[in-house]
Design a protein that fits this description.
This protein is of the alpha+beta class. The protein has one domain: Alpha-Beta Complex (Peptide Deformylase), CATH 3.90.45.10. It has four helices and ten strands. The strands form three sheets. A five-stranded antiparallel sheet has the order 1-2-3-7-8, with helices on both faces. Helix 1 crosses helix 2. The longest helix is centred in the first third of the chain and has 16 residues. It starts with 23 loop residues before the first helix and ends with a strand. It catalyses: N-terminal N-formyl-L-methionyl-[peptide] + H2O = N-terminal L-methionyl-[peptide] + formate. This is Peptide deformylase. InterPro entries: Peptide_deformylase (IPR023635), Peptide_deformylase_sf (IPR036821). Its cofactor is Fe(2+).
Amino acid sequence: MTTIVQVPDPVLRQTARSVASLDSRVLNIINYMKKVLITAKNPVGVGLAAPQIGISLRIFITRPKPDDIPQVFINPEIIKYSQRRQLPHGKSGTYEGCLSLPGHYSPITRAMSVTVKYQTLHSITPHPPLTTKARAESENLRGGAEGEGDIIEKTSVFSGFPAHIIQHEMDHLNGILFIDRVLEQNAKLYKAEGDTWHEVTI
């Protein structure tokens, strides 16, 4: 059974630490994150950060469409934001939600595109699901044997919905929740109950 950390768990407010090396523990974490994201159904997940499974590491994965292969971002850094913004109006545009605060959505404004410097997996060997013991050990990550995984350095530009997801997940790595952006932008927050949305206050 997969579990997603919910607000107000304090791990969601921590600044995640960098990944020192791509060892078997990190590969286990990534595989577990993929399983969690793919099996999230209510709501369906489009992105997941390591703090959302209780592990404060600078890793997130994205899957903008249900049939997309999850893309892995390790030690990501947004090095450029476009001046053009994604600004939802009415029922059009992207209403942002979060698997750690299910059922809540808001028309958050984000940059239309971002340039991201990050590491990702060149290839990945399947590992067993992350056990409770492995999760505990991963909290004490100090690096591992070299050569246990292949990573490549990339710098890529993402636009539209993928850029929106990346900015949301980067916030998670910095201890920022989308409800902080709601307050910052004085945006409306809605709670979905079936097909009906009700405006709520924080």
